[in-house]
Amino acid sequence: MTLKAQFDHTNCGECPIRHRAVCAHCERDELKELENIKYYRSFEAGQTIIWSGDPMNFVGSVVSGIASLTQTMEDGRTQMVGLLLPSDFVGRPGRETAPYDVVATTDLVMCCFRKHPFEDMMVKTPHIAQRLLQMTLDELDAAREWMLVLGRKTAREKIASLLSIIARRDASLHHSGMAGPIVFDLPLTREAMADYLGLTLETVSRQISALKKDQVITLESKRHVTIPDMGRLMEEAGDDTDGGFLV
Amino acid sequence: MTLKAQFDHTNCGECPIRHRAVCAHCERDELKELENIKYYRSFEAGQTIIWSGDPMNFVGSVVSGIASLTQTMEDGRTQMVGLLLPSDFVGRPGRETAPYDVVATTDLVMCCFRKHPFEDMMVKTPHIAQRLLQMTLDELDAAREWMLVLGRKTAREKIASLLSIIARRDASLHHSGMAGPIVFDLPLTREAMADYLGLTLETVSRQISALKKDQVITLESKRHVTIPDMGRLMEEAGDDTDGGFLV
DNA sequence: AGGGTACTTTGACCGAAATCAAATGGAAAC
DNA sequence: GTTTCCATTTGATTTCGGTCAAAGTACCCT
To answer: Could you tell me the residue ranges of all domains in chain A?
Structure first.
């Protein structure tokens, strides 16, 4: 069951996503306090929000747009290690510095809380620490699922896996059922997809073309994707687990 | 700073590792309760401790030996997603089922706690939830660091990265300083190394031979490794971060 | 409309790692 | 001792994805 499914109530103030993510019981007192310390930040596509190693003085969640967590080697090779879609949480309570770069992949709005007040609240409100533990375990599962993709899947399977994740996340946002074709816009450039999948952008492009030729997907434009048969796509991804993905 | 460094006191009863891992302040009351519900389990090399999807009714930590977390596709491709060395924690408070197989890579002793009593204690003792959150964040960082290895490093760099991690963990166990050669036994078969690195066992063998030829490492036997110059090895691994690895 | 820029596709070629296959080594069992 | 079994090494060949290069496409900006 996803995070969204567990806490999908709407009476959580003007930043509902954030509260759904943190407040397990949506109690009014906790909410009031969160309301008092929250603020919004906007970023442009391409902007780096936090540099690896820098002090990170806030936590927050994505309201709209896409952010990514990336690691870079000295010679420039980069690997995306997380994809943050709306409602995803960013931040490490109890940590001083960021362990990797956080980059706005598209224009982005985040709902933030200064770290220290948030940590104080965590101490006063055990629910929150436990909720954060659950969320972190979910992220850990997603990261490990992704290790299988990076370590053992072919380029074609990697592309199918990524499309599958984005399609599933997007479908759950739009409350559509599991039947029928799924339509969405790819929020990533070919290069960003390559960085996520451990491929080159040329290989990404070639494999997308191949999936199109084999009618696993349809492209109305470079970015606008239709998936006529989700089951077929998941076969292509080599996925036995029909769910469970979280990132 | 590693987990070990933060909690390296010795007055924690007969299962000190376990308590170092969970009890942030080593308070006597908590310890007593933990003592009452703990028990030990032994496993033989190769034994599967938990199957992915099975109910998991305990949490615990590795006392001696090595366990690994692995994911397997239908066609048999497998990816190791975590390596559990002595003092590492296993288990998901708040989760019913295991998300991947846990396998004893060597003969193994674990110190376990039934899950429900442990969860009850977690609720009563906020420290523990917060400590577990910290540990889970560490694991998440390690998993993401490993994603860079899997996605972007060459076979030679992958091998060097793995040797580097094991050497560092082993060195910290034996309290040796950072200077001088490091000697240890490889606790993994070539195949297990391959599964961890997303390679084939042949490639692992070839790259180890190559590192030996280039005198980055010395092999007294197939498994007994000497690293004359840790800095050199880390260069080979492409590591800028001279530390931080946890798994 | 024209020109610039950034993103994407496609082609030709190359190389690192996979695959297939055989030989070697080392330890336990008979 | 030698047989058996398993882990490991090494060799020959193939293949998938990377690299280098060029062309195509869409969008923005005067």
So the answer is: 3-148, 154-236
CB contact at 8 A, A244 and A168: no
Using CA coordinates, name the residue in chain A closest to B130.
Answer: A129
Query: Is the Cβ pair B147, A74 closer than 8 Å?
Result: no
Superfamily (CATH) of domain A3-148: Jelly Rolls (2.60.120.10)
The H or E element that residue A67 is part of is strand A67-72
Question: How many CA atoms does the CB half-sphere of A188 hold within 13 Å?
Answer: 25
| Distance, CA of B191 to CA of B176 (rounded, Å) | 29
Distance CA A211, CA B5 (A): 50
For residue B76, give the nearest of A133, A179, A148, A165 by alpha carbon: A148
What distance lies between CA B148 and its chain's CA centroid?
18
A127, HSE (Cβ side, Cα atoms, 13 Å):
13
Q: Which CATH architecture has domain A154-236?
A: Orthogonal Bundle (1.10)
The answer to whether A93 contacts chain B (CB < 8 Å) is yes
Q: What is the pLDDT of residue A4?
A: 35
Which helix (H) or strand (E) element contains residue B180? none
CA distances from B74 to A150, A240, B10, B78 (A): 17, 7, 45, 9
**Contact between A152 and B123 using a beta-carbon 8 Å cutoff:** no
- CA angle (B219, B224, B230) in 5-degree steps: 70
Whether ipTM > 0.90 holds is no
A14 pLDDT higher than 70: no
Q: Rounded to an integer, what distance in angstroms lies between the CA atom of residue B6 and that of residue B21?
A: 10
Q: Are B49 and B100 in contact (CB under 8 A)?
A: no
Cβ contact B105 with chain C strand, < 7 A = no
Start-to-end CA distance of chain A, whole Å, equals 13
Helix (H/G/I), strand (E/B), else coil: B8: coil
Cβ(B112)–Cβ(B41) under 8 Å?
A: yes
Positive or negative torsion for Cα A174, A175, A176, A178: positive
**For residue range A60-74, what is the model confidence (pLDDT) as tens digits?**
888 889 999 999 999
